[in-house]
Amino acid sequence: MSEKETKPWYKKWWAMTIFVLVAIGALGNLAGGGSEPDVEAAAPTTIVADEVSTTVAPEVPATTVATEPTTTVAPTTTEPAAQFTRSEENAIKSAEQYLDFTAFSRSGLIDQLEYEGFTTSEATMAVDYLGVDWNEQASKSAEQYLDFTAFSRSGLIDQLEYEGFTTEQATYGVDQTGL
């Protein structure tokens, strides 16, 4: 009976309140001229540079122009325009933003993107495209839980599995905390 009475921490009213406040702050930062518009503004310049390097190859060495964007801008900001639909590009950007905000399991991030209105195929493509280290995400998630509340080793592994991490990923994540 005690298992049914105990809710995961993130389903409690205070956790949801904190999440909503942080989300509002993050959205306000994006709307108010935070650092994200600078990244988005750099993407068209990078795309134009790639187009110029392909059309003016004899005058501008392609290796010089092609290597600059990959060292200054994440590859995901240059490639989506060339090979993905607008919706897929947005799914990739949204997935990146979620991962910048907090840790996710693969299935959890796909579910979140679907909740935002992306199709299952768009969400899956975006998550797989990013090449995320899910062990690292499990480790970050475990640390976030321990920063917020106390857990036993097995309880934290169970919580990470509940979020969608595999047993191996959850165990790895908890091992990294020293618990």
Tell me about this structure.
The protein is mainly alpha-helical. Helices cover about 75% and strands about 0% of the residues. The protein contains twelve helices and no strands.
Key words describing this protein structure:
single chain; 179 residues; mainly alpha; 0% strand; elongated
Summarize this structure briefly:
The chain is mainly α and 179 residues long. 76% of the residues lie in helices and 0% in strands. The protein contains twelve helices and no strands.
Q: Any chance you could write out the topology, listing elements then pairs?
A:
Blueprint: H1 2-5, H2 13-31, H3 36-55, H4 62-72, H5 75-78, H6 80-83, H7 86-101, H8 106-115, H9 120-130, H10 134-148, H11 153-163, H12 167-177
Helix pairs in contact: 3-4, 7-9, 8-9, 10-12, 11-12
The counted number of beta strands is 0
Rg (C-alpha, Å): 20 Å
Q: State the helix count.
A: 12
* Mean residue pLDDT: 73
**What's the helix-strand series?**
HHHHHHHHHHHH
